[in-house]
Specification:
It is built from ten helices and 14 strands.
Length: 381
């Protein structure tokens, strides 16, 4: 991956002061960063959407939010890619909690395997893989455990707009019948704690979305199909839903019970830790999976180590030229915290599946500089 070096935190104090009448997001988007300027020359072409939440705390440490948006529109479709793994991880823990409450003695460390697996794993390991290196296989295993109906019912009950319909990077991605899953305390013991048979799921309803036909063409089995690619049946997770989920998992006390993710205190602590885990902390080779491998904001265009005092709880996604990051950023040294979610599309030739996307040249540098600009504004606030 070719990465562009940058001067850390490019936006200057003088710019911030001169533009104090503008919102902080407007100031960031008018910075002198070439990476930001490139996108802002034609944000509609790059399908740019941004949500940014400033977090202030009173003398009792109670948070309050100030929200800012750019071009956010739930009805305009973008491909969410791996960001769909974020709700699936939370809902898997929620299902475990429900099964425990029904008397089934399961936890996130209980061994399980899907029908097509040859080896056992556990929910904890799969969630760590999802956040540390964005494993598609881990997502697909949890997808089989949950099923489309359960996933979408849970999101709907929390009033989170979404439609999760398919697996990722597998031949049976759209199969509405899930695999059976088996849970065992001891993989060498024949005793099964919980057996979930395969489930035939419903066809998920469509939303009235715009711009679901994308580009000029796409590659299918090494053949160029010269008409737009249809995304109408693909996963749908708008920016507002991603941003809301991050607020709910970071600040559950600010929401009513039915809006929260109902997971145990122990699982809650675990998933927050998993969201901020760097790849090497999960046992992956640091040369291949550097700190910013899955952290685009602030650090995405550098392979340098992320400082220990800056914790980024996030989930990124990239596919078909779409780059998305949803992050809660907390600098414990400088007492800074904010939530930032953004998506940008970099597919200059308009052809999908040709692997010619401007991730490293345009997309990731933009997200990194956007994060840096807002971080500096927070620091000066």
């Amino acid at each position: 991956m070719k990465l562009i070096s940058k001067v850390f935190f490019t936006i200057t104090t003088s710019i911030i002061l001169a533009c104090s009448s503008k919102t902080p997001l407007e100031v960031a988007l008018e910075s002198d960063s070439e990476a930001i300027k490139k996108i802002m020359e034609d944000p509609e072409n790059y399908e740019l959407q941004i949500m940014y939440t400033q977090i202030d705390r009173d003398q009792n440490n109670v948070p309050s939010f100030r929200n800012f948006e750019f071009n956010v529109n739930d009805s305009i479709y973008f491909y969410p890619a791996s960001t769909v793994k974020f709700p699936i991880a939370l809902i898997a823990l929620e299902k475990l909690e429900e099964l425990r409450e029904s008397g089934i003695k399961l936890n996130r460390k209980t061994n399980f395997k899907t029908q097509q697996d040859t080896l056992y794993t556990n929910i904890e390991q799969e969630i760590i893989k999802i956040f540390a290196v964005s494993s598609n296989q881990a997502y697909n295993r949890l997808f089989e455990f949950l099923g489309q109906d359960y996933i979408n019912q849970k999101l709907k009950s929390k009033k989170i707009k979404a439609r999760i319909t398919h697996r990722l990077s597998t031949d049976d991605a759209d199969n509405r019948t899930t695999q059976s899953t088996t849970f065992k305390e001891d993989i060498h013991d024949s005793t099964t704690i919980y057996q979930q048979e395969s489930i035939k799921n419903s066809i998920q309803p469509n939303f009235s979305l715009r711009k679901v036909s994308k580009g000029k063409g796409y590659i299918d089995n090494d053949t160029l199909i010269q008409h737009p690619k249809d995304f109408s049946k693909k996963n749908y997770l708008p920016l507002r839903s991603l941003h809301e989920m991050m607020k709910r998992i970071q600040f559950p006390e600010m929401y009513t019970k039915n809006q929260r993710f109902t997971i145990s205190a122990n699982d809650y602590e675990f998933v927050l830790n998993a969201m901020s885990t760097l790849p090497y902390q999960a046992g992956y080779d640091k040369n291949e999976f550097y700190d910013s491998y899955g952290k685009f904001f602030i650090f995405g265009d550098s392979k340098n180590d992320i400082p220990e005092h800056i914790k980024i709880f996030n989930k990124v996604g990239y596919a078909y030229g779409y780059l998305t990051d949803c992050s809660y950023i907390h600098d414990t040294k400088n007492n800074i915290e904010f939530i930032l979610t953004a998506t940008v599309h970099v597919n200059k030739n308009g052809i999908f599946n040709d692997d010619h996307y401007e991730y490293d040249d345009i997309g990731i540098p933009f997200l990194a500089q956007l994060g840096s600009a807002l971080y500096t504004i927070e620091k000066e606030k």
